[in-house]
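Quick one: examine this chain and its backbone structure tokens and tell me how the chain folds. Here goes:
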Amino acid sequence: MKEESGKRMVSIKVKLLGIILPVVILIMVLLVGISYFISRDIIKAYSENLLSSSIENQANQIEAWLNENLAAFQAAKRAIEQTNPGPEQLQAILDSYYGFNDNYPQGLYIAEENGNLLTAAGSDKNEADPLQTVWYQEGLTRWNMGFTRAYTSAAGAEVISASGILKDASGVIRVISADLTLERISIIVNSFIEMEQARAFLVSGTDGTVLAHHDNGLISTGLSQSGDDFLRAVGEKIDRQDLDMSEIDGNMTAFAQIQGTDWILVSYIPTDVIYADIKGVRTLMAVIGVVSVLILAVLVERVVHMVIRPVKGLTDVITAMTGGDFTIRVGRKSSDEIGIMSRHVESFIASMREMIASIHGVSRKLNEEANTSNEVSGQMYDASRLQSQSMKELNVTVEQLSLSVNEIADNATTLATVVADTKEDGAQVDQKMRETVEISIRGKSDMQRVGGAMTDIDASMQKLQQAINKVGQASEEINNITGVIGNIADQTDLLSLNASIEAARAGEAGRGFAVVAMEIGQLAKTSAEAVHNIEILIKEINELVGDTIRQTDESVKNINNSSRLVGDALKTFDTIFGDIDKVSGLVQEMIRKVEQVDDVATNMAAISQEQAASSQEILATSETMVEQANNITESSERVSDGARELTASAEELYGQVARFRIEKEAGAQ
């Protein structure tokens, strides 16, 4: 069955099955998947707990084994320290431990600080330089015996040693040690695995060296240099100090730190082994899900068929109504929702018969009125179109007038602005001229005062010259006086010399007179020296006075020249002042004329602006009228179009109503 559009009809039954069955299938898949993952997580958690318990037990066993051996070594060390044996007794003790225990078949051995190595008589232990060995170097760092890192012995065996300083009364630093082979440790590591198909190996947490492994070829190799991806990944995890259980390269892996050492025990089991049993459970659950989906699909199909069957009859009725046939009758009656729907559809058909009959009569009248409206709207459109054309022509004329008036107003405003600026510039020029006149008046007064000052300076310089001349005359008089004083000093010196001679002749009686004569002679010499100094000073004063007189003469000449120049400048200032006064008068006259021009330009600009504003108002009014005329034209056109559409709609409505059949044709049942 097909619809009128040509698309294939899809029944409600198919749609319901298309919705319900995928939902049921999805629910079953989710249930199976959730059950699978829940069981997988349960098995994973159980396996993790079992692996954790296994590795913890392994670690405890290894720690117990190490502690047991270390306790035996420590007991032997304390026995030697307490008994302080001699060389023969010490050798007997070492011989007693040789082959005593399979864990350390070489027994105990001792290295002294002088390089001497003490071993059991049957031991093949040999060291070229015991002081450079790992066990000796690390043994020097502790009193109690402890395990060294893994290393290769002189015999080529991979071993670890328990060593420590021997505190005896020998007076020599000794280190006691015993070797444990890594192969022996591998046997212990692989012997205590509780989880079936799980494996374990022991590594050094310091450098990642493999200490014990089921593959003896990997012992003493580094994890980072291994060609196995799993071992490299384990090494990277240990380098990060991450010892949490995790899945690495398809293996569930657990880590445990061996107490008292830097060893890390690694235990792992493939995840395929853990999840092997759950694969069968997953297959069984998938089969159960498929069978359940098939049973549910059959049940759903039957239920949908029973529910949809009454709807098919109602669909035929609605399809006939879609074709315009309202003479059809709804025959099915029931008490469910579909029966209620059928009764309401029948009521709808009756209502539609009445409504279609009414619309048929109205559509005929509407068609007649639409034809009349179409003719009237055509006449209105022609008239409005003529009016709009006339208004456009008027608007163009007004716009040109407005442009001309605006241009005049702009020019007038520009002229007023220029005149106003010129007026302001003239006012500023007048202000500057007034300031210049005032400055020139003050300059003239200043120049007059400068002339008077130059005259006073000339008089002062003349007085200074007279005073300097008097100083020169006084210095000459002082020079004469010092000459007289010098002569007196010379005479006094001669007198003191004669007095000294006479006193010497007088002997003891003239001794007091001789002292006086000496003092007078000394005074005469001092006076002569002072006179000589005064003469030097007077000479220098005379030279300075001469220089001063010459400079004073030059200053007087310069001042006289400056006085003449000041006089000339004063005359020039008088001429400039007169010219500035004339210019000031001309500027004031120019400002008065500019003010008159400014008034005229301002009035002209105001009148032009008023005309421009008026033209703008006229232009705005004209544009409004043009816009209104265009609106009227558009409205008339829309009315005309609406009338034509109304006529077409009325005709279409009449044709559509004619499709419906509300009465049976003659001869129809």
